[in-house]
């Protein structure tokens, strides 16, 4: 189950009843600005808007702070608020502001400003919102059966990449920070399988006042592929990494505003100094078909999410993204932001290395190989809603499985830049000499990648 997310059911009893009578209809508009001329920030003092860890990550990779890093001009935001509407969030990389308004006339007034290039409606409030699960923690039983293998249920999805060799060498993600941008992390705070996991913080960009642990379970399952840490029950691919849990997916509707939420989330991840972002989200179709993407728009620039993911790569973040589950649909193709440049897009295979028929295919509209590589997404071991082990299908789970492994690789080879990491992953994969639009470069041998990373340092080409 990969989250496109096309109305994936909330889960359990959520669909049993709908919310109470709807309030007045509201709208959210993406306001594209022209410049940052009135900024109060300076590139001479990046510590005012980026953490020390974020600056260190860039300096380590030889990346300069530039004008795209400057926050959106507060003076412009204040003017939009004066004209009506409520400020929701902004994207400094894309220089956009998201405003909530009661009607279209307010948004049209924004166009009178010389600093506004365009406005686009990206959200209409739904008639009702399903209630969340009451007494959610009562669902958690924390019961499981032990296996002979150290990795428990996750053994095959790690060993197919020789990831256990990295772990045995002492690389389990310690010191690495991973942001998981998803749809909610249902009951993570009540599950013993995560009791040793380092969670640095959470943030909900859909509803800042929500209980992020009371939202959808998809993010919890994605997170478990990396972070679960109970030997002989389930051990993830990066059990010693530290995590930020960020929500950008609004499962109650399917509207373009979710790209704005995601853009804000990835910029937040950058600003706090995260090393790697995993996202098992993607969008090509929406509630209003007029918003749908087309094949020719899979260019890494058209969608706001792909644009933001490409920006993240330029800031020294490694973005790992699920390819999508449309391989058997009429769409078939990867789904934005999987088309972004400079990221790792992950397709799904079974534990024998055979591609899943649902796994979305490439290439991008501008001819880049996608997916990049493959990981297990058929009968993937995940944590269930009761806190025990379970299984699920989808590139949603192939992505974090690989994300955790590449975090361990980067821990082992900290001199690598993001482009070097991606190049090594490609070269260490079993189809590196003949990549295609189904498997990409194939299945990566992480120990081989590690040896390549060591050689790069020895040759003097590493940072």
Descriptive keywords:
single chain, 463 residues, alpha/beta, Alpha-Beta Plaits, Rossmann fold, 2 domains, 7-stranded parallel sheet, 4-stranded antiparallel sheet, 15 strands, disordered N terminus, signal
* Relevant CATH superfamily of the largest domain: Peptidase S8/S53 domain
Please count the helical segments. 11
Biggest sheet statistics: 7 strands, parallel
CATH class annotation of the largest domain: Alpha Beta
Order of helices and strands: EHHEEHEHHEEHEEEHEHEEEEEHHH
Strand content: 15-25%
CATH architectural category of the largest domain: 3-Layer(aba) Sandwich
- Count the beta strands: 15
Strand order of the largest sheet: 6-9-5-10-11-12-13
Bulk shape:
globular
Count of individual domains: 2
Q: Gap between N and C termini, in Å?
A: 38 Å
Mean pLDDT rating = 94
CATH topology of the largest domain: Rossmann fold
Which runs of at least 5 residues are low in confidence (pLDDT < 50)?
1-22
Protein name: S8 family serine peptidase
Signal peptide: 1-23
Keywords: Hydrolase, Protease, Serine protease, Signal
Family: Belongs to the peptidase S8 family.
SSE layout and pairings?
Blueprint: E1 27-33, H1 52-60, H2 74-82, E2 86-91, E3 96-101, H3 104-110, E4 116-124, H4 155-159, H5 163-168, E5 177-182, E6 198-204, H6 218-227, E7 229-230, E8 234-235, E9 242-247, H7 257-272, E10 276-279, H8 304-314, E11 318-322, E12 344-349, E13 373-376, E14 380-383, E15 389-392, H9 395-412, H10 418-427, H11 446-458
Parallel strand pairs: 5-9, 5-10, 6-9, 10-11, 11-12, 12-13
Antiparallel strand pairs: 1-3, 1-4, 2-3, 7-8, 14-15
Signal peptide: 1-23
Active site: 182 (charge relay system), 218 (charge relay system), 396 (charge relay system)
Family: Belongs to the peptidase S8 family.
């Amino acid at each position: 189950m990969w989250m496109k997310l096309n109305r994936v059911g909330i889960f359990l009893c959520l669909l049993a009843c709908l919310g109470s009578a709807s309030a007045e209809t509201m709208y959210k508009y993406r306001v594209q600005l022209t410049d940052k001329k009135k900024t109060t920030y300076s590139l001479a003092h990046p510590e005012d808007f980026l953490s020390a860890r974020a600056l260190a990550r860039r300096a380590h990779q030889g990346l300069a702070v530039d004008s795209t890093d400057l926050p959106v001009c507060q003076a412009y935001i204040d003017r939009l608020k004066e004209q009506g509407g409520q400020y929701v969030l902004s994207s400094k990389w894309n220089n956009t502001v998201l405003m909530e308004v009661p009607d279209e006339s307010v948004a049209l007034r924004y166009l009178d400003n010389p600093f506004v290039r365009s406005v686009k409606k990206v959200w209409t409030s739904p008639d009702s919102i399903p209630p969340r699960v009451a007494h959610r923690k009562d669902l958690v039983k924390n019961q499981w059966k032990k296996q002979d293998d150290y990795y428990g249920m996750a053994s095959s999805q790690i060993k197919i990449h020789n990831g256990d060799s990295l772990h045995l060498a002492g690389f389990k993600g310690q010191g690495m920070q991973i942001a998981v941008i998803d749809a909610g992390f249902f009951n993570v705070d009540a599950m013993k399988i995560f009791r040793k996991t380092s969670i640095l913080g959470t943030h909900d960009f859909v509803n800042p006042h929500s209980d992020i642990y009371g939202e959808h379970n998809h993010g919890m399952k994605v997170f478990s592929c990396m972070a679960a840490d109970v030997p002989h029950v389930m051990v993830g691919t990066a059990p010693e990494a530290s995590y930020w849990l960020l929500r950008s997916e609004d499962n109650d509707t399917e509207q373009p505003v979710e790209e704005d939420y995601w853009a804000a989330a990835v910029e937040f991840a950058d600003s706090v100094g995260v090393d790697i972002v995993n996202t098992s989200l993607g969008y090509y179709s929406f509630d209003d078909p007029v918003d749908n993407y087309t094949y020719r728009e899979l260019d890494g620039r058209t969608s706001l999410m792909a644009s933001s993911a490409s920006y993240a790569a330029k800031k020294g973040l490694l973005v790992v993204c699920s390819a999508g589950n449309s391989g058997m649909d009429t769409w078939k193709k990867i789904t934005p932001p999987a088309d972004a440049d400079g990221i790792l897009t992950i397709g799904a295979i079974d534990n024998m290395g055979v591609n899943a028929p649902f796994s979305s295919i490439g290439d991008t509209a501008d001819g880049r190989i996608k997916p990049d590589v493959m990981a297990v997404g058929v009968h993937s071991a995940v944590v269930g809603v009761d806190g025990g082990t379970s299984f699920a299908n989808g590139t949603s789970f192939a992505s974090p499985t690989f994300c955790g492994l590449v975090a361990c690789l980067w821990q082992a080879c900290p001199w690598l830049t993001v482009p070097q990491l991606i190049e090594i992953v490609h070269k260490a994969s079993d189809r590196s000499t003949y990549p295609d639009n189904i498997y990409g470069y194939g299945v990566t041998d992480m120990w081989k990648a590690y040896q390549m990373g060591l050689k790069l340092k020895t040759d003097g080409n590493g940072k």
